[in-house]
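Example complex used in Figure S2.
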Amino acid sequence: MLSCKEVTELVSQSIERRLSLREMLRLRMHLFVCTACSRFTRQMKFLHAAARAYARRGISAARQWVLSTAARERIRVVIRRER
Amino acid sequence: MAESTSAERWLDDHGDALFGFAFMRLRDRETSEDLVQETLLAAWRSRESFAATSSERTWLIGILKHKLADHWRRSARQPSDNLNADADDDLIEKTFDMEKGGPWRVSPSAWASPEAALEQEQFWRILIDCVAALPPAQAQAFSLCEFDGLKGEEACKAMQVASTNLWVMLHRARLRLRQCLENNWFGREPKG
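Predicted assembly (275 residues):
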């Protein structure tokens, strides 16, 4: 039986790579009986979806993160010097 | 159109977007500003390579992504920041009882209506703060794979690490983020 630590490793890896059949079976067996790891698995799916959603709307969500006037002018000077 | 004005126009039209993109990943004003500047200069020098088939912003963001990768590579070489995943064993030991074979020390709690969190501005801020609080290499790994949607191999190439190393970093990043979100969002008493 996989330990909870090993299960969290496999769950994490399943986001980047396809698990082998054997890994999948062992994972399922553990999740079937372990509430904590089942929660962890759902939370990782949520985190994945949240990160993607954030990246999609990232630029508009970051609207309060704008260049300061000072930085903008500094960059403008550098650009002018370049031409 | 006077071509000589376009770099300045990019600054006016896309400066904030570029800054926001960098700042979301770095949470560091000064470095983000530097990267915007580097991006605009690089764009200006390679203006011939701009294909009218893509939008200006997409093109500029593409250049910025390269600048970000360069930045991360540089900072990963600094000794204070370790790409060596094993130096972070504390986290595993704190999370799992390794003497008993690796069960959770404290079980994850049930998260109430996580989907509703996505509608709230405050949640995003906490998520980004949690990412920014990660050890730098883990933050980079997470950012490349989850925000930028890079495939495993691409992220390995960008970070110059083996895939097993990347998986270890991502696993740790996710354990930390899970805990951070639970502490700062899902564990809170509902307000109002």
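Chain A touches chain B through 47 residues (CB under 8 Å). Chain A has one domain: 4-82.
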